[in-house]
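=== RUN LOG ===
request id: a7f3
mode: sequence -> structure
chains: 1
length: 117
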Amino acid sequence: MIYLILDNQYITHVFQLNYNPLQAENLATKPMAKVIKVQYNNEIIKFSLPLMSGITDLWAEVTRRFKKVNQNAFRIKYIDCNRNSFQILSDDGLWECIANASSNGMMPIKMIIERAT
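=== RESULT ===
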């Protein structure tokens, strides 16, 4: 059995080598993503999050749009189809909420930002 360990920089490089020629010929497709809708107070933002994203990517998107929100003082919660909320704490938690929302046909995936207590 052979194990191959690749770092993200190498994977990105290989992807760009293959993607850029396709893009030049208008043959490239966008990476698969889910639409995320996040509410903080009375503001709502909507963005696409690639399926391979993790909690760090989610926080980056949220804090880029909501300047007053930071990871240390706030938390992100997923709202399911029954309006129950679940805090997202890890990559696994994010992937679980995406899978749950997809299996229930939720589009976009709804989340809220709350101040941590």
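=== NOTES ===
The mean pLDDT is 81.
The two ends are 49 Å apart (CA to CA).
=== END ===
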